[in-house]
Amino acid sequence: MEIWINPACSKCRSAIDLLDAEGADYTVRRYLEDVPSEDEIRAVLDRLGLEPWDITRTQEAAAKELGLSDRTAWPRVPAARDRWVTALAAHPKLIQRPIITADDGTALVARSEEAVREAMGR
């Protein structure tokens, strides 16, 4: 299992604390330093069963600069998927966190203790 984290994020630190307390075997990816490629983002989206706009932190400064809340400029439709993925790869701070890729091939946005426990059970 791998967990994408930003060490400054309290939800990420809580997820790591729980994984450690449960003795989980996992790898940490500090995704702001080890930025995922567009292909890696697409793969995680497929594992999550989500679209890029579903994991975008729209309140971040970069999101506001890009105008991501403007649904005319940034439509949330399949034809715009690659543009969103490109934006996430170029601005990884926009990626929701933490994301856990489970051993069964699925992934979760693990913002709650329940989600972390669910990932450990997969």
TrEMBL record:
Q: Which Gene3D superfamilies match?
A: Glutaredoxin
Keyword Cell wall biogenesis/degradation listed: no
Q: Which domain of life is it from?
A: Bacteria
Do you know which InterPro entries this protein is assigned to?
Answer: Arsenate_reductase, Arsenate_reductase-like, Thioredoxin-like_sf
**What taxonomic classification does the UniProt entry list for its organism?**
Bacteria, Bacillati, Actinomycetota, Actinomycetes, Kitasatosporales
The UniProt keyword set, sorted, is: Oxidoreductase
Protein name in the entry: Arsenate reductase family protein
Alphabetical list of CDD domains matching this protein: ArsC_ArsC (cd03034)
SUPFAM superfamilies cross-referenced by the UniProt entry: Thioredoxin-like
Q: From what organism does this protein derive?
A: Streptomyces monticola
